[in-house]
Amino acid sequence: MLIVADENIPLLDSFFGEIGEIRRVSGRTMTASDVRDAEVLLVRSVTRVGPELLEGSKVRFVGTATIGTDHVDEEWLARNGIRFSAAPGCNANSVAEYVLSVLSVHAERRGLADWTRLSVGIVGVGNVGSELSRKLDRLGFDVRLCDPPRAELEDEADTSFVSLEEAMTCDVVTLHTPLTRNQPHATYHMVGAAELEGLSADQLLINAGRGEVIDTQALKARLSQTSAPVVALDVWESEPAIDPELVQQVWLATPHIAGYSLEGKVQGTEMIYRALSRYLGFPVRKQAGQFLPEPALSKVSFTSAADEDDAIKIALRACYDPRRDDARLRIAMRGSDQERAAAFDQLRRDYPVRRECSSLKVQLKGTSKSLQDSFRAIGFKLKI
Ligand SMILES: NC(=O)C1=CN([C@@H]2O[C@H](COP(=O)(O)OP(=O)(O)OC[C@H]3O[C@@H](n4cnc5c(N)ncnc54)[C@H](O)[C@@H]3O)[C@@H](O)[C@H]2O)C=CC1
Ligand SMILES: O=C(O)C(=O)[C@H](O)COP(=O)(O)O
Question: Locate the D-isomer specific 2-hydroxyacid dehydrogenase NAD-binding domain: which residues (predicted)?
Answer without folding.
Answer: 115-258
